[in-house]
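Record type: monomer structure entry
Structure origin: computed from sequence
Chain ID: A
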Amino acid sequence: MRKLKANEILVLRSCGVGGASERNFVWPLTVGAVVEAPDWQDTDACGHGLHGLPWAQGGDYCDNSAPVWLVLRVSTVKGNYRHGTGNMTDKCKFGACTVEGVFDNSKDATDMILAHAPAGTVANYCMLKGGDYSTLTGGDCSTLTGGGYSTLTGGDCSTLTGGDRSTLTGGYRSTLTGGYHSTLTGGYGSTLTGGNDSTLTGGDGSTLTGGGCSTLCWRVWDGSHYRLHVRYTGEDGIEAGKAYRYENGQIVEVTR
């Protein structure tokens, strides 16, 4: 890919089969193709233009189950680009662009964008939903929802919801909710809620809520070593469905 100019960015968008989009618009699936909006209007209102996520950042505009993912080169010159105001706060709108990449999954498309993005850019739009036996890996601030037997791995601030027997691993400040027989491992400050027979492991400051027969583990730094503090529901005053934290050397119930 040729170097981006100072007034150019990369934009991510998803499409249906064959490049199908809303209002009967069909995106060309050829790298190098120039695309123009036939109804372009230079306003902050949604519609009347081409839409996507600048540097793969924004809300849940993209359809994470989509079969086609495009990386677009977009000029941000006045008259061709809108972002940041009106209805364009969670996405951007533009009149013309060039197709730089065509992929069958969001990860490859996002990897291409991040490889050319300004330092510190994070693709934080991701929302992944998988069926049974799925494997889902999300970036920072991702939302992952997996069916039974799923394996979910989320970045910082992720929200992970796994089905029965799922394995969930969340980054710092993640929120993890696992079904029966789930194994949940959360970073510092995480909130973990596990079904019956779950094993929950949280860092310092984590809040763990387990069902009957669950195992709750806190991985705590004591100044020289990480130590595991383990409790079982039904023993030592630990009750199913209640939330607990490790504080000042003690396991204490969290009152909400």
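Annotation 1: The chain has two domains: 8-116, 127-253.
Annotation 2: The mean pLDDT is 84.
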